[in-house]
Design a protein that fits this description.
185 residues; alpha+beta; Cyclophilin; 8-stranded antiparallel barrel; 16% helix; globular
């Protein structure tokens, strides 16, 4: 083996393993586990953010604050969206302490089970911590929001998440919560 090949092989072995997904334990009207395969080759900065926040425990206890039937379930407000100690009136407006991310758009279509990054308004470079899981296809999102992964197990749990009311999908009363979010290899 040449020295160059040896060095390359060693570098790969010595580098940290890339996270391949997350598991979300959900409690509320929906109960169970959602497994998401993260697309680090499609959206590396966004996947790094999700796995960092999950590893830090920032997503534990965060509610699904915006859930629109026949569209999506949104969560991830680590600032205001905590079931205990959060501010449900502001849930959906908060970020993490990390800076916003630049978009990483792809050709992946928004279909049932696809996971995308939420952002503030129409500015494409404002994704931070919040994400959403699609109940169904929604072509108008294609190429407009960064796709970060896909549900591989637990779509029945996603389908059971408590729905919100009105056009904005705000969940009234006790929302379903991500009890624990774990990074899986």
């Amino acid at each position: 083996m040449s020295m160059l090949k040896f060095a390359a092989a060693f570098a790969v072995m010595a580098s940290p393993a890339l996270a391949t997904g997350i598991q979300i334990e959900v409690e509320g009207e929906a109960n169970g586990t959602i497994t998401i395969d993260l697309f680090e080759d499609v959206a590396p900065a966004h996947v790094e953010r999700i796995t960092t926040l999950a590893s830090e425990g920032a997503y534990d206890g965060v509610v699904f604050h915006r859930v629109i039937d026949n569209f999506m379930a949104q969560t991830g407000d680590v600032k205001y969206g905590k079931l205990e100690g959060g501010n449900m009136g502001q849930a959906g407006t908060g970020n993490s302490s990390y800076p916003d991310l630049k978009q990483e758009f792809s050709d992946i279509k928004y279909e049932r089970g696809i996971v995308g990054m939420a952002r503030k308004g129409y500015s494409v470079d404002t994704a931070n911590a919040q994400f959403f899981i699609m109940f169904t296809q929604y072509p108008s999102l294609n190429g407009q929001y960064t796709v970060i992964g896909e549900v591989t197990e637990g779509m029945d749990v996603v389908d059971a998440i408590k729905r919100g009311k009105g056009a904005n999908g705000a969940v009234i009363g006790q929302p379903d919560v991500m009890k624990k979010v774990t990074v899986i290899e």
